[in-house]
From TrEMBL:
UniProt-annotated binding residues for substrate: D22, S23, Y54, G55, N87, T88, T195, H196
Keyword Lyase: no
Gene that this polypeptide is encoded by: murI
Protein name: Glutamate racemase
Function: Provides the (R)-glutamate required for cell wall biosynthesis.
Length: 275
């Protein structure tokens, strides 16, 4: 099948189905932005928690997992558009997926370009250890940082903290200070280059200070999805379906399902494809 990234050629309707993919709950920050524009379509959220955290996974393993899972669900659920709501995956899997699928595949990459237009001093990139090491990220910095210095901070602990917060756990301010310490006082704009981080944006802002502008890609992704699906906005639409699937039993499942219910999702359904 041929890759396609332009308009799918139909108006978005109540039958439209979007698949949102991440390693964990981070993609919900992207879902939130898309849903705000397109509440009436159907959302299927898949998280590969069996291989979480993606920020510490081998390249080849990541590419083959995302490929297998996304292709499986696209076919099974007759999906119209895929959002890889994960920077760590998007920075390496998009060419493979687009070559296989005939529907649009939208990826999320760190918002270096918009950040460089906003920064006066220096840009911070807070992402997973894999994303800060990716060649793709370094190309983005070279092409778009407008020669502004870019401070890199890769942290899996911050990803875990976002998972914990969504399950209702209290985050430790002292620990956050410790994790973000290398960035403190050095930048005036910080890119949240992992989709988990908008879920703890307030906490990050408290540590870095209100003088630091935090930027993420969520809204831009939502605009892109809307553009690809067509512009029709229904007045007072009914909400579509919201279903969520995991690849392993999630930890603190009760707390997770409670939070997901508030986001409009039915309880997590476990589907293991690995055996
Ligand atoms: N949410 C992901 C991202 O945007 C990955 C987090 C992880 O599994 O390490 O990069």
């Amino acid at each position: 099948m041929i890759a396609q990234s332009n308009n799918v050629g139909y108006q978005v309707s109540q039958q439209t189905k979007i698949l949102i993919f991440d390693s964990g709950v981070g993609g919900l920050s992207v879902f939130r932005e898309i849903e705000a524009k397109l509440p009436h379509i159907n959302y299927f959220y898949i998280f590969d928690n069996a291989a979480y955290p993606y920020g510490e996974l081998e390249h080849d393993t990541l590419i083959s997992r995302v490929d297998k899972l996304v292709c499986h669900y696209v076919q099974k659920l007759a999906i119209d558009l895929v959002v890889i709501a994960c920077n760590t995956a998007s920075t390496i899997v998009l060419p493979t997926l687009r070559a296989k699928l005939s529907i649009p595949v939208v990826g999320v990459v760190p918002a270096i370009k918009p950040a460089s237009n906003l920064a006066n001093k220096a840009i911070g990139l807070i992402a997973t250890p894999a994303t800060v090491a990716r060649e793709y990220t370094h190309e983005l910095i070279k092409d778009f940082s407008n020669a502004k210095p870019v401070e890199l901070l890769g942290s899996t602990r911050l990803v875990d903290m976002a998972e914990e917060k969504l399950r209702g756990q209290q985050l430790s301010q002292a620990e956050l200070h410790q994790v973000l310490e290398p960035m403190t006082g050095k930048v005036d704009v910080a890119v949240l280059g992992c989709t988990h981080f908008p879920l703890i944006k307030e906490e990050i802002q408290n540590v870095l200070g209100t003088q630091v502008l935090l930027v993420d890609s969520g809204e831009a992704i939502a605009r892109r999805v809307q553009e690809l699906l067509g512009q029709e906005i229904l007045a007072n639409p009914d909400k579509g379906q919201r279903k969520i699937f995991s690849t392993a039993p999630p930890y603190a499942e009760g707390a997770l399902n409670k939070a997901l219910q508030e986001w409009g999702f039915s309880p997590v359904q476990l589907e293991i494809l690995d055996r």
